[in-house]
Amino acid sequence: MDAAIVESLKAGRPEAAFEALVGAYRRRVFGLAYSILRERAAAEDVAQEVFVKLWKGLDRYDGRAQLSTWIYAITRNQAISALRSRRSAGSLSEPGVFAEAEVASATEDRQGADDALLWRAVAELPEAQRRAVTLYYQDERSVEEVAEMLGLPVNTVKTHLHRARAGLARALGARGGEDAA
Fold it and tell me: Which single residue of 86, 95, 134, 141 has CA 20 to 30 Å from 122?
């Protein structure tokens, strides 16, 4: 899909390129924004802002980085800026209630109790681990791509994934024991 988008750009058809880009990346941009912000409305706002930036900057895409890497970098930066603004404004809601509501809404579309349980556990991971897991497993990116998208060294991403897997194993093992009791 990226090749078709770049080809449309080279052919002087930015509208077609942008339309294909939105179709291909809408879910992924929202997913990354959500993994950082953990609030559906804020992630939707960030995704919209990202696509406005992409539209305005599409003519400046030079092909040095993969299209997906460029889009993820913009998304990451926009989401982090939104998170900083939100924190400096002091408008965070109560974390426990907020997390439960967001996990419930995020898992509505997922099939089966196992998926809901897994994604609830993922939502409880530390932010860096949650982002790495989301990009690696949900978006099926390589460790190298995740590192580039998050602006981290490859070994740091590997460490985040390792710790996340260990944390998920503990969380799911503990919850599995609760369900059996």
Answer: 86
Average of pLDDT values for 140-166? 91
The predicted-structure confidence for 37-92, as pLDDT tens digits, reads as follows: 888 899 999 999 999 999 998 888 877 778 888 898 899 889 888 888 876 654 44
User: Please, what CATH class does the domain formed by 93-181 belong to?
Assistant: mainly alpha
Cα separation, 153 vs 5, whole angstroms? 28
User: What is the number of other CB atoms lying within 10 angstroms of the CB of residue 133?
Assistant: 23
Structural domain boundaries in the chain: 1-92, 93-181
Q: Helices 95-107 and 113-123 meet at what angle, rounded to 10?
A: 140
Measured at the CA of 71, the angle between CA 68 and CA 73, to 5 degrees, comes to 105
- Predicted TM-score (pTM) of this structure: 0.56
**CATH of 1-92 given 3.40.980.10, 3.40.50.620, 1.10.10.10, 1.10.1740.10:** 1.10.1740.10
> For residue 112, how many other CB atoms are within 10 A of its CB?
9
Answer for the pair 128, 114: CB distance below 8 angstroms, yes or no.
no
